[in-house]
Design a protein that fits this description.
The protein has helices spanning about 10-20, 40-55, 100-115, 140-145, 150-155, 165-170, 200, 240-255, 295-305, 335-345, 360-365, 390-410, and strands at about 55-60, 65-70, 80-85, 120-125, 185-195, 205-210, 215-225, 265, 270, 280-290, 315-325, 330, 350-355, 370-375. By secondary structure, the protein is an alpha/beta fold. The strands form 2 sheets. Strands 1, 2, 3, 4, 5, 6, 12, 13 and 14 form a 9-stranded mixed beta sheet that branches. Helix 3 links the parallel strand 3 (about 80-85) and strand 4. Helix 1 packs across helix 3 and helix 10 (about 335-345) packs across helix 12. The longest helix has 18 residues, at about 390-410.
Length: about 425
């Protein structure tokens, strides 16, 4: 099938990424393109037009996910699928999600440009509502495909204005047919920005992602009593915020001693009644912890659950509630090895690594052999307007996809 070394067109890749950034571009060169908004519709329309221009057939499923197919020599065989998502968070970046979709498009363009007809079909997919920024939960369409979520429940999810997912999908004209769902594939490949600083720090261009790490999220409620900020002596107070500070210090000391790969975040905190002259009577905060080894996740839970008692000299009550969790999702070894083989052939500096963030691939991996490729994020920034991946690294990531597709498309079933 392959008669010469071919590479993607880096300039075309860059121009296409910039064109997509125009659909929701912010003043600070970021992007706000929430799922199923007018900006999302325009991006979807442009994606479909780009695919149809090079002869790909486009279909849409009942969750609004788009599949563009480049025919192969043997079209009744399972395809190789590439993709990611076009939606963003509010004031997000130009690369998160869209890089995987555009790189897949560029692979297809390159095959057409060189007159290479793959042995098996090649599909480029845009999965609906990966971010969950407008309709929760995140990774929604992939969750329905993998039967993690019920379609009927997802269709009734509402945004802050009370608009349902189903209403928004209908409004932008992307209600497709359930028969178009992705049900099988030889492999799924997702190129994504790292959303962390590891690759840049180690001067590497590519991450071969072996898994999406397991995680657990708890909500912790600390209850004390309100008093006047001036009238209540310090030794008689049940200050929920002071108790929380001591509790967080204890958590940090214990969690930091578990393993250097464990990451944990206190990302949300609400203080009640949140008045400057009143001793806080309640604090509610979240603790999110992630690790690839389930044993360390278990130890994290043990530490958190050990906090459910009266805490500290403030004598406040502590209640811990698990919000959600997920097991580590390991990607297919053969597909990961194919990605690594392709990176070596291209001569790029790389490492095998894990993903702390969730992606469509983690759900699709439950029924399709999958793997991910990371491109470096400058300063580790993502979900922000200053998110940046160099054009050179975007091109290298796309070349890895191309080389892997060429390699896997010739492998026997």
């Amino acid at each position: 099938m392959k008669t010469m070394k071919i590479l993607v067109n880096g300039e075309r890749l860059r121009n296409t990424l910039e064109e997509f950034a125009n659909f929701g571009r912010t003043e600070n060169n970021g992007v706000t393109r929430l799922a199923l908004t007018e900006e999302d519709r325009k991006a979807r329309d442009y994606f479909c037009s780009c695919c149809e221009k090079i002869g790909m057939s486009v279909k849409v499923d009942d969750m609004g996910t788009i599949y563009a197919t480049l025919e192969g020599v043997e079209n009744n065989t399972r395809p190789i699928v590439m993709g990611s998502h076009l939606d963003t968070v509010k004031k997000g970046g130009r690369f998160d999600g869209v890089l995987g979709v555009v790189a897949g498009l560029e692979v297809a363009r390159t095959l057409v440009e060189y007159g290479i007809k793959p042995k098996i079909p090649i599909v480029v997919a845009n999965f609906t509502n990966e971010e969950g920024a407008r309709f929760e939960p995140s990774i929604m369409a992939s969750g329905v495909l993998s039967r993690k979520f019920k379609k009927s429940v997802m269709m009734n999810k509402t945004d802050t204005d009370g608009v349902t997912f189903e209403e928004a999908l209908t409004t932008i004209g992307y209600v497709g047919d359930i028969k178009n769902r992705l049900t099988e594939a030889k492999a799924y490949l997702e190129l994504h920005v790292e959303q962390g600083p590891v690759l840049e720090t180690e001067s590497l261009s590519i991450g071969v992602v072996e898994c999406v790490v397991g995680m657990v999220c708890y909500e912790i409620e600390v209850t004390g009593e309100s008093d006047h900020a001036g009238g209540a002596p310090m030794h008689m107070r049940k200050d929920a915020l002071f108790s929380t500070i001591n509790l967080i210090t204890e958590l940090r000391e214990k969690l930091s001693g578990l393993d250097h790969e464990l990451v944990y975040t206190i990302g949300r905190m609400n203080v009640h009644p949140n008045l400057h002259a009143v001793v806080p009577n309640k604090v509610v905060f979240s603790i999110d912890a992630r690790h690839k080894d389930p044993e360390f996740v278990r130890q994290v839970e043990e530490i958190i659950q050990g906090l459910t008692h009266s805490h500290g000299k403030e004598n406040c009550q502590v209640k811990c509630t698990k919000i959600w969790d997920r097991d580590t999702v390991w990607f297919d070894k053969e597909v990961c090895d194919s990605v690594e083989q392709s990176v070596k052939k291209l001569g790029y500096r790389y490492k095998r690594m894990v993903s702390g963030a969730g992606h469509d691939a983690q759900f699709l991996a439950s029924y399709i052999p999958s793997a991910m490729v990371f491109a470096p994020s400058i300063n580790g920034k993502s979900h922000a307007e200053n998110e940046l991946t160099t054009w050179e690294d975007c091109e290298k990531g796309a070349n890895v996809l191309l080389e892997t597709v060429l390699l896997m498309a010739t492998k026997k079933e």
